[in-house]
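## retry 2 of 3
previous attempt timed out at serialization; input unchanged, resubmitting
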Amino acid sequence: MVGESVAVKEQIVNEDPLEHGIRKALNLGHTIGHAFESWSLTRRPYLHGYAVAWGLICELYLSVIKTGFPTDKMRQVVRFIKENYGTLPITCDDYPELYELMTHDKKNADGIINFTLLGDIGDIRINQTATKEEIYETLDFFREG
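## retry succeeded, writing output
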């Protein structure tokens, strides 16, 4: 499965080397995941893969509220990630810093935070946005969900 995944990623990168289209599909979980990763560097550093897995929890929740991703599928992924990767110990006091870190992501344009979300399995929605309030709600879900 790893070999197949690498081959798919290689095909996508070759098809869109400058990340203007389909390559953005590979960013699911990364916008918030990169913020988690950067945040952790001044505390207890976590591996990139863990941060992206936690970002995936958040971005699937955003997918539920923004693009209609099925809640049951989101919960299945959340359960798997939390059972296998634990969680990141954030509090509400960390939200402003995490939000600020998200504003510096390379995928953003004109000061707007961009996400790759899903409408369903295989239904990729690139260049999706969320309000600050929706992002904070997502962080609430991550902590409490």
